[in-house]
Amino acid sequence: MSKIAVVPGSFDPITNGHLDIIERAAKVFTEVRVAVMNNSSKNPLFTVEERIELIREVTAKFGNVQVESSSGLLMDYAHKVGASAIVRGLRAVSDFEYEMQITSMNRMLDESIETFFVMTNNQYSFLSSSIVKEVAQYGGDISALVPPVVQHALNDKFNKK
Known about the structure:
The chain is α/β, with parallel strands linked by helices. It has helices at residues 16-28, 48-59, 74-81, 93-109, 129-137, 148-157; strands at 4-9, 31-37, 65-70, 85-90, 114-119. It has a five-stranded parallel beta sheet with strand order 3-2-1-4-5, with helices on both faces. The radius of gyration is 15 Å and the shape is globular.
C-alpha cells in the first residue's frame, strides 16, 4: 500500500538540515511531497518558484520526492495529494512547543493524518534558514550548511562571488 508523507516548510532556502529530514522521510514513505508553504507573514529572500527549483535540484537523487507549493492550510494540501502523514523536523526542545501547537491544530482539522517528528542530525541542530541567510549576507562560509547550488544562489542574491 502506498504511503504518502508531506514535508512542509518555507525552505528559504533549503539547508542540509532540511535535506536530512527529507532524505530520511524518503527512506520510510513510498512517496514524499515537499510542500513549499507560501507564508504571508514572512518576507522571503527567494520566490516560491526559486525555492521549488532549488529543492527539486537537490532532491533529484531521491526517486520518490516531489516538490510543489501550497498557500492554504497544510491539511488541505495533505488531502489533495492523498497523504497519510506529515513529517516535521525538530532541532531542539524550543521547536517542540511550537510544533506541538501546530500538530494539535492539524489533528483537530483531520485526525486521520498522523504527524511524525524526526530529530535532526546533531550536526544540524543549530541550523536555520535565517542563520544561513545572515552568514551568507556577510560573506561567511556556508559550504557545510547548504548544498552547493544553494550556496551559489545565496551568493548571487547577495552579490558575493
